Structure formats: structure tokens, C-alpha cells
Amino acid sequence: xxxxxxxxxxxxxxxxxxxxxxxxxxxxxxxxxxxxxxxxxxxxxxxxxxxxxxxxxxxxxxxxxxxxxxxxxxxxxxxxxxxxxxxxxxxxxxxxxxxxxxxxxxxxxxxxxxxxxxxxxxxxxxxxxxxxxxxxxxxxxxxxxxxxxxxxxxxxxxxxxxxxxxxxxxxxxxxxxxxxxxxxxxxxxxxxxxxxxxxxxxxxxxxxxxxxxxxxxxxxxxxxxxxxxxxxxxxxxxxxxxxxxxxxxxxxxxxxxxxxxxxxxxxxxxxxxxxxxxxxxxxxxxxxxxxxxx
Length: 294
Prior knowledge:
7-stranded mixed sheet, 10 helices, 15% strand, elongated
């Protein structure tokens, strides 16, 4: 039986229907092509934007990238709330400000802030929220000094006029080299005289002269970020305990970092020996402690 579509009469009768179908297909195809063209342009724009953003925030020249996800920020908010007792709204706001500070100072400074975005932003947000008892800040191990500059800015924003003392051998390798002139240039980025007037002592917690100079005051904040070996980390932590004012905040860098197991070992030993330090919790890979009365 011959096909219906090969019949001339059938073709003549069905031609209007065919034309209508063809018109509708053409309109649909044109609309789809327009959507595809628009999508192509949007993807091209996103690629251009992401390339520029990556130049600013990727891991080049850092320990890690500075592109947090919404999930990462939510986790940080929960950790900051647990450690500090602040509201979730307050913690999120301060973490956002801390992140902006990190991006700005790393873009302007020489070198980098050591650690992941979680570690860096967690420190900067939590310390002011823990309301240190005074503005004396001791940093044992400063690297390029950018974290200290950021911490001074965050404390100043919270109403604390901080005074910084830095203890570091200033012999770090890498690119750029850790030198006093680099540290001072970065501290100047904090935007107030506390950065330029910082007291920088070249040495370690084992140097008698350094210990004598640093022990002239009680510190409201002590950041322990020196050699991560168990022996040195324990010595630094015990020194921090001696120097801490009543109610001081102790920040122990690397406590949750599997690449630095000596730090966790040092804290466990330190707390087992009748320490006046009380563990508040951990944010990222950083432990936070509070010093009780002597």
C-alpha cells in the first residue's frame, strides 16, 4: 500500500499543517539558539571574572587559597560561637570583616599570612570577641607580620588600643625572606601607630635576654605560632602561661593540623601539669585558651 505522504491529494490537504509545524519548530529553534547564545556570553563573562578573582585570591604565594565557600563560613560561625559565646549574627559579621581584612592586607603586604582561610579568619574574629583583659599582645613567631597587623586592626575595630610585642628569630626562608624590615613594613599596614611602634625582639623563648625583656608586663593576648615541634611548642606554651595576665586569651596555632602533631602533644602535656590555662575550644586548626588567676 503506497504511503499516505506520497499521495498528491494528501500532500495538498496536509500542507497547511506541515507549514504550521515547521513555523513552530523554527520559532522554537530560534528561541533555543538565542538562549544558547546568551548562555555562551554569560559563561565567557564568568570565566573572565573568575580569572581575575583567582589572581587575587588563589593559593599562589600563600599556604592556601582565600576563596571560602558558604559551607565553610557556616562551619566557622558555629565554631566561633562555641568558643566565644557570641551570637551567630555577631560571629558572622566579624568573620566577614576578618576575611576582608585578610584579602586587603595580603594584597598590599609583603609575604603572606600562614594557614588556611579558616585558621586566619577564625583567629582574627575570635580574639576580639573573647574580650582580652588588656591591650598588650605578644606574638611568639610572627612570620612576615601580616597576621599581627590584621589582629591589631581587628582589636582596634573592637575598641582596644593594642600594643604589640613580637618574638621571632627572623631567619625564615622562602619567598620573600622573613626579615625585620619586611615585618615592620607589614605592621605599618595596620593603619595606626600601634603597628609602627611595635616592639620586635629577635630570638626565641629560650633566649634569656629576650625573656627578661618580654617579662616586663602581663599580656592580654598571647599568640603561640613558633616552631611546631613538641618540645619547643611546650616551652612556648609554658612561657605564654607565665606571661599571661588574668583572663588572657592564648592562641595556639596548629593544634588541629595533622602536619604538626607536636603542637597537640605539647598542649596535652601542658594541660596535664596543673596549668592555669583552660581550653575553650578549637576554630579551624587553632586552639584557644583562657588564663585563670595566678
